[in-house]
């Protein structure tokens, strides 16, 4: 699929499938090196991180385990408020384990900082974050993202797991949505 197949809703391809795959290999090599000799649990955040998780885990050489969480951020209107509700919790106890949260995108950082706090309260050996994309607004939050794929502009992006109203998740690339589709407000 390319941008043209999606009709007029897609503005442009921002990151190609090849770029995603190359960057994923680089991140996987870094994570392999950083966690060598340790057992790592990858925690994917549903649903957006499905593609990142699948590709990152396969690009790694360390044996990893995978678990998933689904959260929903309560917001008044379109902004993420940082008040988060767990829709699906982890299957297993993480105490004493090395945890790497795998996310599609960090925007305001509110969801991830809540998640880090929540997971840390379960007494893991460590908690770190890998996010394929990072928006400029995340710089305002004091949150450390150990592994990031790409910086993206403050536009609404879709594809590679990211959706707009549950559509576009299966695009193999990251594209920007035409502002007329989402009303120009990039927060949600
Ligand atoms: P915060 O602001 O808490 O929110 O860091 C992160 C979550 O917001 C969603 N998000 C997006 N989803 N295109 C999307 O499809 C975007 O451009 C975008 N920006 C933020 C996403 O669910 C992420 O987990
Ligand atoms: Mg998400």
Automatic annotation (TrEMBL):
Pathway: Purine metabolism; GMP biosynthesis via salvage pathway; GMP from guanine: step 1/1; Purine metabolism; IMP biosynthesis via salvage pathway; IMP from hypoxanthine: step 1/1. It is an enzyme of class 2 (transferase). The keyword Magnesium applies. It catalyses: IMP + diphosphate = hypoxanthine + 5-phospho-alpha-D-ribose 1-diphosphate; GMP + diphosphate = guanine + 5-phospho-alpha-D-ribose 1-diphosphate. GO terms for molecular function: guanine phosphoribosyltransferase activity; hypoxanthine phosphoribosyltransferase activity; magnesium ion binding; nucleotide binding. Its cofactor is Mg(2+). One of its GO terms (cellular component) is cytosol. It is found in: Cytoplasm. Residues 19-164 form the Phosphoribosyltransferase domain. Its EC number is 2.4.2.8. Keywords: Cytoplasm, Glycosyltransferase, Magnesium, Metal-binding, Nucleotide-binding, Purine salvage, Transferase. GO terms for biological process: GMP salvage; guanine salvage; hypoxanthine metabolic process; IMP salvage; purine ribonucleoside salvage. Coiled coil: none annotated. The keyword DNA-binding does not apply. NCBIfam families: HGPRTase. Belongs to the purine/pyrimidine phosphoribosyltransferase family. This is Hypoxanthine phosphoribosyltransferase. It comes from Trebonia kvetii. The lineage of its organism: Bacteria, Bacillati, Actinomycetota, Actinomycetes, Streptosporangiales. The gene is hpt.
């Amino acid at each position: 699929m390319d941008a043209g197949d999606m009709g007029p809703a897609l503005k442009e391809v921002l990151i190609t499938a090849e770029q995603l795959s190359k960057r994923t290999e680089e991140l996987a090599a870094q994570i392999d090196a950083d966690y060598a000799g340790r057992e790592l649990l990858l925690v994917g955040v549903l649903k957006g991180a499905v593609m990142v998780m699948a590709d990152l885990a396969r690009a790694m050489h360390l044996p990893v385990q995978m678990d998933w969480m689904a959260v929903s951020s309560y917001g008044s209107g379109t902004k993420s408020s940082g008040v988060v509700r767990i829709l699906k919790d982890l299957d297993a106890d993480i105490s004493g384990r090395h945890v790497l949260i795998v996310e599609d995108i960090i925007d305001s950082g509110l969801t991830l900082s809540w998640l880090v706090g929540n997971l840390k309260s379960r007494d893991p050996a460590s908690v770190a974050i890998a996010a394929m994309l990072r928006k400029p607004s995340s710089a305002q939050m004091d949150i450390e993202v150990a592994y990031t794929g790409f910086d993206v502009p403050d536009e609404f992006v879709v594809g590679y797991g990211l959706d707009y109203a549950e559509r576009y998740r299966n695009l193999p690339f990251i594209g920007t949505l035409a502002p007329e589709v989402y009303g120009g407000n990039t927060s949600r």
